[in-house]
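Before relying on records like the one below, remember that each one covers exactly one chain. Contacts with other chains, cofactors or solvent are not represented anywhere in the record.
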Amino acid sequence: MRREKQRNRRPLPPEKEIKPKVTTKVAKVIGVPEDAFSALPQIELSGNREAVVEGCQGILEYDENVIRLSLGRMMLRFCGRNLQLRCMAAESVVVEGYIMSMEFLT
């Protein structure tokens, strides 16, 4: 039987480094979180008393116990007591009151 020569196999090259997105680079340069450039809605909670929602596209339901907002492909529902919209701007709202739950709906 003839033994076959083992071929000198070169090790596989290391995986190519994944290049960071342009938004990641820009965010690092100007010192802001990458999420600031995202198309996703941004929600900032202050305890259970206030929520700032950026990326709001409309108000679907509003009373003192439920506020439902349109966020494009999804909806966001706040349930609680004495809820009110304290401030509304072009694409942001501030929900204030005693927030007991927050739910994403598709």
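The beta strands are 42-46, 50-54, 58-62, 66-70, 75-88, 92-105.
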